[in-house]
Amino acid sequence: MCLFAQGAHAQALDLGRAGTLSPEDIVFLALYALTIGAVMLAAVWLIRQRATISAENDTLRTALAESQSDAEACTAILAADDQRVILFNGSDSPQSFGRLPPETGSPVETGRFLSFDQWLPKDDVISLAGLIDRLKATAESFHQEIPIDGSVIDVAGKTIGGMAIVRFSAVKGMREELVGLRAENTRVVATVETLQALADDLPMPIWLRDAEDRIVWVNAAYAAAVDAASVADTVDRQVEFFNASDRASITAKRRASNAFRGELTAVVAADRRNFRVVETSGPVGSAGIAVDISEAELVRAELRQIVESHSAMLDRLTTAVVSFDEKTQLSYYNAAFQRLFSLSATELEDTPDHITLLDQLRSRGILPEDRPLRVLKEETLEAYRATEPTEAIWHLVDGRTLRVVSNPQPQGGTTWLFEDLTQMLELESRLNSLVRLQGETLDYLNEAVAVFGQDGRLRLSNPVFAETWGLGEEFLKAKPHIRAIAEQTSVSIVPRQNGGANVGWDDFVRAVTAFDDGPREPETGEAELADGTVKTYSIVPLPNGQTMLTFVDISVARHAERMLREKNEALEQAYKIKNDFVQHVNYELRSPLTNIIGFSALLRSSDIGPLNERQSEYLDYISTSTSTLLTIVNDILDLATIDAGIMELELSEVDIAKTVEHAAEAVRERLRENDIVLDIDIAAAGDTFLADGHRVTQILFNLLSNAANFAPSGSTVALRGWQADKTVCFSVSDEGPGIPPDLIAKVFDRFEADPSGGRQSGAGLGLSVVKSFVDLHKGTVDISAGSGGTTVTCCFPTGEARREAAE
After folding, report:
1. Is 739 helix (H, G, I), strand (E, B) or coil?
2. Starting at the edge strand that comes first in sequence, how are the strands of the sheet with 789-797 ordered?
3. H, E, C per residue of 375-426
4. Are the CB atoms for 328 and 355 separated by under 8 Å?
5. In whole angstroms, what is the distance from residue 472 CA to residue 474 CA?
6. Which residues pair with 718 in a beta bridge?
7. Which residues pair with 407 in a beta bridge?
8. Residue 367 class from Cβ within 10 Å (0-12 exposed, 13-18 middle, 19+ buried)?
9. How would residue 4 be classed by pLDDT, with cut points 50, 70 and 90?
10. Is residue 629 packed enough to be buried (19+ CB in 10 Å), middle (13-18) or exposed (0-12)?
């Protein structure tokens, strides 16, 4: 505006200097003057308006200062009153005034203060948020007291106009105490109601008494136990749970020591039960509870019986068992543990701890010495800290081996088991040695052996089995099934041609794989193979369903058997021919011999006439020869009768003295001819015994004849008789050269004659007849021979023994 005025003024001067004004210049000057006037008017109005605004500003400043002073005074008042006001006026950010005491733990910053969940209890935060929301929405006033960290905050909310105001103030003095008491009362009442509800639901009787011991409250279990209609009925009628004597005992002890604890009995539902009773005195009376322990006592008694039974059972175990508690103190041991470590009862009754017990055992040289005692103790203590059972092997100095198992107990402590493996290891070693020995034995056997399991697969075999059936080593190592062996074998079995039962691999397969309910029996038989060999097989059932097959080569034996059978048949035929011939010849010889003997006796008769000396000598020779021949024939006939089994003894009471005399008389002439003395001593033999008298005479005659043949001239032949052990024995001894030891076994064989040392060689039947007749009498014959002579002893059973033997 000033620049414009200056320009107009300059232009007017220019016009004045020119001396003339044009109409345009006049209009311009008029407008210029008009503009100057308007500007001047505006300047005056602005100056006046500015003065008015300045006066209003001064007034506003004064009002603002007064308002700020009032606000600071209000804030100071609010801060001095330990309260904080939150103003909600519809904006997003509420206003906050004042401050709570630091002991309340409330934040100073408005944002953190309004985050109630960071410094108020959770339950109060939820309720307070709901109250503030209702205050802002429906203008519903509220009042709440919030306990926090030992102090109480009073929260009040109301509306003023369109604003919602929430005031937080710290409660102090009597009011604070009142609030605390009210909260405590509420808590106590809630606690009492909770406990009362719990007591009402408990199955055990509970009661309360006043200072005068009157019942003031009982629970439902109490009322049910005393058969009352209700809890109120129980209190009204003062129904007691225990009898008067027990009640007096409870009262007396409670008054003496403020509490009664003991076990009493009461009748509940017509059943007397045991209760553990506790009644305690209080400020206004007493309270009591009765816990039914009947079932617990029953379980405790059963548990005690079970523990005693287990202890008795453990004492009978051969495995040593010992338990230590959580302090490693000995709590239990069985008899096997005491025997295993040779511990006395006195040492164990002192309940030593585990480490002390280890020291005692190491001092006695019982513990293993393959590791230091310190390491052994560490291993022991580690077992107490373990959660799973541990196991170790102890090799003791005395050669024993123990398996040690430690088992941690849930309630603390550890149970130890000591199992003596010494015998088991020895047996295992023996078994392994036996298995190796059996394996080596099987490998070197001449018979084929194979063992099959219950599943029919091969368990073991020897090389002869593989060789016999043409099986490869690799094939057998695979443990094939018996059916595979039957298919793989290259050696076939030839069917029997003589009508016998045929056998093949199908029979072996059936025997190995059969499932028989009853016990299996061994089977044996023979099989001829395609290569001409003959095998005897055996199917032997073994334990656990196993089966053993054995094959023995008897080809040579069968060939020899055939040869022996043929030779035996030839010998039997020859023997039959011999017997037939002997019997026939014997009977044919006896008749002419009898005639010769008869006519010889007749020639000696005086009726025939006298004989000259030579005739008489010849007649003696004839008589002697015929008598000897008749004896031989009779002996042969007797032996043939015995062989035929038709010889029968005629048993009777034999007069011993007469029988001996008859036998001696028969050989007396021969003894006299050879200047031999017969010494008889039968005083100890008794009078009689049960036997066949004729056969006993033959036995004694043959023994005396044999002795006379071998006894040298001028010697003595002794005949003795005695009784011993229900037998009657006779012995005949001579002083001849004796029988060589290698011939003693043959002297009883028939036709075995030994002419050496004898005067004449006989038929060799005398001692055979003796042996046969003594055997018929169930007796015995014994020969003792040496360089000083020979003694033959024959013993016959007597009495009942003889009768039983004869029958």
Report:
1. coil
2. 677-684, 716-724, 727-734, 789-797, 780-786
3. HHHHHHHHHHHCCCCEEEEEECCCCCEEEEEEEECCCCCEEEEEEECHHHHH
4. yes
5. 6
6. 679, 733
7. 415
8. buried
9. very low
10. middle
The confidence score (pLDDT) of residue 628 equals: 65
Phi then psi dihedrals of residue 375, to 5 deg: -65, -40
- Amino acid of residue 612: N
Categorise residue 153: left if φ over 0, alpha if ψ from -120 to 50, beta otherwise.
Answer: beta
Cα distance between residue 406 and residue 284, in whole Å:
57
Using pLDDT thresholds of 50, 70 and 90, give the confidence band for residue 283. confident
Residue 176 belongs to what H/E stretch?
helix 173-201
pLDDT of residue 396: 84
What is the rounded (10 degree) CA torsion for 46, 47, 51, 53? Answer: 20
Neighbours of 205 (CB within 10 A): 26
Question: 131-145, pLDDT tens digit by residue?
Answer: 888 888 888 899 888
C-alpha span between 325 and 310 (Å, rounded): 18
Residue 230 backbone phi and psi in degrees, to 5: -160, 175
305, with CB counted inside 10 A (0-12, 13-18, 19+), is: exposed
Q: Which two tokens stand for residue 346?
A: 């006195």
Q: Which residue has the tokens 């006299």?
A: 672
Beta strands in 73-213 (DSSP E): 83-88, 95-98, 142-148, 151-160, 163-171, 206-210
Chain segment 555-582, per-residue pLDDT in tens:
887 778 778 888 888 777 766 765 665 5
Residue type, 207: W
- Radius of gyration for the alpha carbons in the chain, expressed in angstroms and rounded: 70
Maximum Cα interatomic distance, the chain, rounded to a whole number of Å:
257
Distances (CA, A) of 609 to 14, 350, 525, 602, 615: 249, 125, 81, 10, 12
Residue showing tokens 């080593």: 473
- Residue 208 carries which side chain, given as an amino acid letter? L
784 phi, psi to nearest 5 deg: -120, 125
207 burial level (CB within 10 Å; 0-12, 13-18, 19+): buried
* pLDDT tens per residue, range 737-764: 877 777 776 777 665 555 454 555 554 5
The position carrying tokens 């960071």 is 118
What is the distance, to the nearest Å, from the Cα of residue 380 to the centroid of all Cα atoms in its chain?
Answer: 25
How high is the pLDDT of residue 562? 78
Place of tokens 């107009």: 8
Half-sphere exposure for 591 (CA within 13 Å, toward CB): 4
Structural tokens at position 653: 């009471």
How long is the chain? 807
CA 579 to chain CA centroid, Å, is 74
